[in-house]
Amino acid sequence: MSTALHRELIAAFTARSRNHPYLAFTLNSLCNLDCVFCKPRCMPDYGHKDRPLTVSDYAAIAAEAGVWQIKKAHCSGGEPTLRADILDVIGGLADGLGPGAAIGMTSHGNLRRGLSVEKLSGVGLTYLNLSLHSLDPARSAEIMGGGDPRITMHTLETALALGLRVKINCVLQRTYLDDAFAVAELARSLPVAVRLIELQNIGPAQALFDAEFISEAEVRARLHEWFANAGEVRRDELGVRSPGQYLRPDGWAGSIGFISNSSCATCSDANRIKITPTGVARPCILHNRDIPLKPHLADGTLDDAFAHLFQAMLDRNANGAWQGYHYVDYDLRWDRMERPEGAPVLPLLPLLATDTPGPSVCARASTEER
Question: How far apart are CA 135 and CA 141, in angstroms?
């Protein structure tokens, strides 16, 4: 690939006012919990029988990404901390992207024996997204199939003490709505960003959706007193690069945002390069421009792969399959889900007929930052 093309593709993101891409790695599909809306062990390829990327692979991908001025990598799963080599993976990403990079991870926070937030921070982790759906141990276990929110809270407090940015992911369900509000209220006294996430009518959540879905609009109405005098928090202050809005209620230490992929999904400035455990890079879920990275790792041609990814992301603006809808991570977690060429992976969802936020709410909804 020519140096001129490299410069041209990087410059195009600024010229088109698009956020620069970042890397979103799914490190595994394994999880030692079993959330009701996820149920990973129900998936036919649970455990990834294919050979996953190695520590040296992650380091090489990050090093090439650094050449492309990418300064952020996020790791999720499954539960990424179940990887025995997670410290080496985080360290390789941090070294590859270089000084000042943001290296993050999504976890349920019940870290396995021998792993600690201190160790993760020591190798380069700069922020942590914690899945927390109830503060009550019994109700949390109903939702997550195990784990202990008190341990998650200890992980959260340790991360804050170490200077890591912390975000909390909480999925909204009608049965557990008061639990979600209690989680959101953690932002009253803690400098965290709580993201209230709409249930999506996909995968295992399809069995729950009709009874449990509650829209952002309805939740905003119930929390109107919190938001009445709330101020907007700058995304760069939170380490967030997506177009969503985060609000800080008057006098609170933290903020609340929404991820509303069911009622008003939009990927107008989606900027993740998604990479599966076995190294398939996906610049867009609905635009089938996937590219396997393992051959490029073997041939030393990662620069060509990144040129493809950058061009594919720019091409999303004219993607006929896009139409403003976005399915977060569904086909990313499950590495061998069939991806027919030239056709959307999933049927496009119409906006819900009821409880649909108005344009002002939808325009602010965050769909990319996880």
Answer: 10
